[in-house]
Design a protein that fits this description.
The termini are far apart. The chain has four helices and twelve strands. The chain has a seven-stranded antiparallel sheet with strand order 3-2-6-9-10-5-4. The mean pLDDT is 97. The protein has one domain: Electron Transport, Fmn-binding Protein, Chain A (Pnp Oxidase, Chain A), CATH 2.30.110.10. By secondary structure, the protein is mainly beta. A hairpin with a 3-residue loop joins strand 9 and strand 10. Helices cover 14% and strands 42% of the residues. The structure holds flavin mononucleotide. The site of flavin mononucleotide (FMN) has 20 residues, from strand 3, strand 5, helix 1 and helix 2. The site of flavin mononucleotide has 20 residues, from strand 3, strand 5, helix 1 and helix 2.
């Protein structure tokens, strides 16, 4: 075992999700997409998630104002579009136009969802927790969509078909292969 000279955080894999926002200004909608990997599950009743955005980013300021956001899960075929959304800023560029994603209206929130993403979720902001460099936005999921094309026979999302992206230590990965069902050793 090698002890590193510096402390690192090698937790992997992380998800690659697209968080959408809408800012209304002077009667116009300004829609945006921010790719996020520092994200996780907090609670299941109701379903709550956290996304962590570094302080001062455009998307974070919008979410604090509107108190809602979409969470859209892209397949790996949209790698380039995902990366482009992570290299540009919503206060300067219309990322929906930039990457040519198709919007559809959410039912419970005023933010766009992305047709190209096999899974979309609507979130209402429940809390913001401030850390040194990042802010943790806690969202309650209020609506969930799975594209029919990616629903398996048991009604669950088919992750093999979806071929979602992961983020590992500076690189994009895909998911890999399915092994056993959770708790399969419990008999
Ligand atoms: C795959 C990927 C994951 C990212 N994860 C995060 C993250 O978890 N938190 C964060 O603050 N920025 C993250 N970024 C960087 C933001 O997406 C990037 O700064 C973006 O341009 C900010 O958009 P905005 O200026 O429109 O808010 C990530 C970028 C990529 C490509």
């Amino acid at each position: 075992m090698v002890t590193l000279n510096k402390v690192m955080n090698y937790i992997a894999p992380l998800p690659v999700i697209l968080v959408t926002t809408r800012l209304e200004k002077d009667g116009k909608n300004y829609d945006n997409i921010i790719p996020i990997s520092w994200a996780g599950i907090i609670e299941h009743s109701p379903h709550m998630i956290n996304i962590n955005i570094s302080k001062g980013k455009y998307s974070g300021t919008v979410i604090k104002k509107t108190k809602e956001f979409g969470v859209c899960i892209p397949g790996s075929k949209y790698l380039e579009q995902v990366d482009m959304c992570g290299c540009t800023h919503g206060n300067k560029v219309d990322k929906f136009k930039l990457v040519n994603f198709t919007k559809y209206d959410a039912l419970e929130i005023n933010a766009p969802l992305i047709s190209e993403c096999p899974v979309n979720m609507e979130c209402k902001l429940s809390n913001v927790i401030e850390f040194k460099s990042h802010e943790m936005f806690v969202g309650t999921i209020v609506k969930t969509y799975v594209d029919d094309e990616y629903v398996s026979e048991d009604g669950e999302p088919d992750y093999r078909k979806m071929d979602i992206l992961c983020y590992v230590n500076g690189y994009y990965w895909t998911l890999g292969k399915k092994l056993e069902k959770l708790f399969y050793t419990s008999g």
